[in-house]
Design brief:
The chain is mostly helical. 61% of the residues lie in helices and 0% in strands. The chain has one helix and no strands. It has one helix at residues 2-35. The radius of gyration is 28 Å and the shape is rod-shaped.
Length: 56
């Protein structure tokens, strides 16, 4: 009887930890990317502060 109780407790605690982990990861994947915008890629154009260096 004690062995069955021990296995049941260990299995239920393990299942609870796994379920909580999956829930947290799911929430982070659902709401995480929207709160952090992707960085804008710099445009490859010459602006007044960037002068083209010629080989003269």
């Amino acid at each position: 009887m004690p062995a069955i109780l021990f296995v049941t407790v260990v299995a239920s605690v393990g299942f609870g930890v796994l379920a909580a982990y999956i829930a947290v990861i799911g929430i982070l994947h659902t709401f995480g990317p929207a709160s952090q915008p992707k960085p804008a890629r710099p445009r490859l154009v010459l602006v007044p502060t960037q002068n083209h260096a010629s080989g003269d």
